[in-house]
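cron nightly-structures :: item 1 of 1
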Amino acid sequence: MLKRFELHNHTTHSDASISCADLVRHMEEDHVDVFALTDHNTISGHRELKEILRTHDFRVRAVYGMEYTTYYGHILCLNLHQYVPWESIDVRHPEKLFAACKEAGALTGVAHPFSYGAPFARGCRFEMQISDFSDVDFIEIFNNPEPLREVNEPGLKWWESLILSGERLAATAGMDLHDARDMSMMFATYLEGEADGDPEQELETAIRNRRTWVSKGMILRYEREGGRWHFSLEDVHKPGFKAGERWLMNIRGNEGEVIREITDEGLWMEECEIPPGSALIVKLFMDHTDIEDLVCVAPVLYR
């Protein structure tokens, strides 16, 4: 089964107006499966959230993390259970912090890389110079409150360029919640799991294997059978999702792209119909192929 993860959220333990208890209720009401607590530069809310979930009968589950908020950009950590110091953060060598977080067992990625920086939001834009991505696990390609074309589209394109240059990075999305807001028609992160599975382990497996979907509510799947590929759609019933008139699939590699219409019955494609390349970006649009019509970024197709 596919689970919806909301991976970027804040509470009154940092700079938000929503408490841990209210955050849990907000996620429960929107039928989220798992959410992450990622307050700025603190893990002080972890104990409170664990106690709330232990003593109340909520369906929603949680994973724990933190968002490093520096003058050079924000680094999102998931499955982080201990505070990792970052006083030595270096804009030219951020790999040191990524490696330290990985050693502590965390998943680490870049949050809203092309956010507005100074003078409007000093430090929000990612200006660190990463030369080695081996300890970077994911890129937040959609930060829902940010402007679509000015911030999120460049983030998506950066992730795509890294993938096509040979890097192996998962894609995620986040609400970056600081209050209780409407999450309909917003991107969420989906991954495979079990009804009674351990969400932390499921997140670890999905990120490490780059098996995440970033979607507004319709998932694009694919599988290879012999010399052909079968692509199919799956409605994950995200609250507030509104489908368009038709679905368009875009497959892009270093040497070109193809666009095909796909129906509820799915689509078969011969190997020769797919652009050459070992890593291919697979996206689903509704009605048109503008960024505003993007519905799903599927896991990278490797062959």
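cron nightly-structures :: done
The helical segments are 20-29, 45-55, 95-103, 148-164, 199-208.
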